[in-house]
Amino acid sequence: MKLRVLMSTCAVAVALGGPLRADAGTPAPLVLVLDASGSMWGQVKGEAKIVGARRVVGELAAGLEDARPIALVAYGHRREADCADIETVAPLAPLDRPALQRTVDRLNPKGKTPITAAVEHALGLAPPGATVVVVTDGLETCGGDPCATVRAARQRGAEFVLHVVGLDVGAEDVSSLECAAQAGGGLYLPAADSGELAAALETVVTLPPALPTSALVIEARRNGELQDVSVTIEPLSGGRALGARTYARPETNPRTIPLAAGGYRVKARAVGIDGAPEQTFEIAIAEGDRVERMLDYSTGELTIGATRNGALSDVTWQVFAPGDRRRPVATGRTYRAPTSNPDRTTLPAGDYEVVLHALEIGGRPTADLGRVHVAADTPAALRHDFASGELVIGVVRGGTLVDATVVVRADRASVDAGRTYRSATSNPLRFTLAPGVYEVEVGEIGGGKRRLAVTVEAGRTVERTVDFDQPTP
């Protein structure tokens, strides 16, 4: 686990250009805000989150400078359903490791998650140049807006950097937490478990109190509206990547990501758009510079309708990137209902190739509809009519129905098959086939075989009866 912590810490330090330890003067005062709400009794990998957090805080303190001033704020640890349950459990003072560990060990999660009020409380303790770190396993439950609180404090001239670590927040929309970190000039770091929590805390407490003034600013839109995008930033000089997310909210979109001067490869993936290609580009950023990128993920609608001899028909469809049939970017099925035929899909603007597979015709023939252009915020439509005819094969011996297998082939390849049994419900057998010439092989169960050639025409039915009492014609 130590190796994992070290690698994560170095990765962000490389991306941000920060040292792993303050290299001059007194280390920045640290105000740690720790979630002690009731949900911290939830387990991750068999361990309660509060138990892991207690251990991680102790490990963190063991690596801090002896002279570093530190304060600890907790919330939700004394009363249930009380949004005012916020306490400075350790006032700002030079680090006392045993006392800090005893204080953390006494925290007993009970209540709610008043993140906004806890942040405001912590900022009241923070001297100029302090680092404030918020650890939470969930979102605000007391109606506050942590981002607005941090932004207002900055506008009043307060000097601090604020980082947020989201512990086991899963797939929740953490845009409010990302926004708070962005407004505080810091980072939002997710932590899936106590190991990642240790890595995240070591990262943020060892960064300098002022992050680089240079930054990448990413705005993402789709058809004029804000679009949620997951961003990965890789230093070209090596090191692990830094992640961020825009969400579809003006608080975090555009997303400002502090970066040290240098070169980076940026990968941006739209969230919630089928077939959206990952946009990749490289940037060179100078000290104090802001590189701005607008990412357009505009989409259009493609409708796909299918008929057979003019009537609604059940088909599956696949949409591919041009020249790439290995993996479709979208798939679907029309069925025969007007509520689903034509079927609809939303795709990023661009060119595509569409292939249909007829489910109602023997051999499931395909129709390659070629290339279609989908324009942003503009519908495009494709329609295809499959032609078919009916082949009816009866099998008898004299006047008695015969149990037989029937195989229909085209160019020696099996197209369809069935069995007649001795029942009028299945004898004769009916096959729906594309127009063409077929060879039909009929094999009596436990008896002989007959072969015949038939021609199927669109919209017509051809009937044949094989009588095993009669000689082969």
Task: Write up this protein.
The chain has about 475 residues and is of the alpha+beta class. The protein folds into 4 domains: about 1-205, von Willebrand factor, type A domain (Rossmann fold, 3-Layer(aba) Sandwich), CATH 3.40.50; about 215-295, Sandwich (Immunoglobulin-like), CATH 2.60.40; about 300-385, Immunoglobulin-like (Sandwich), CATH 2.60.40.10; about 390-465, Immunoglobulins (Immunoglobulin-like). About 15% of the residues lie in helices and about 40% in strands. It is built from 7 helices and 32 strands. It has helices at about 1-15, 50-65, 95-105, 115-125, 145-155, 175-185, 195-205, and strands at about 30-35, 45, 45-50, 70-75, 85-95, 130-135, 160-165, 190, 215-220, 225, 230-235, 240-245, 255-260, 260-270, 280-285, 290-295, 300-310, 310, 315-320, 330-335, 345-350, 350-360, 365-375, 380-385, 390-395, 400, 405-410, 415-420, 430-435, 435-445, 450-455, 460-465. The strands form 8 sheets. The chain has a 6-stranded mixed sheet, with helices on both faces. Helix 5 (about 145-155) links the parallel strand 6 and strand 7. Helix 1 runs parallel beside helix 7 and helix 2 runs parallel beside helix 7. The chain is elongated and about 105 Å long.
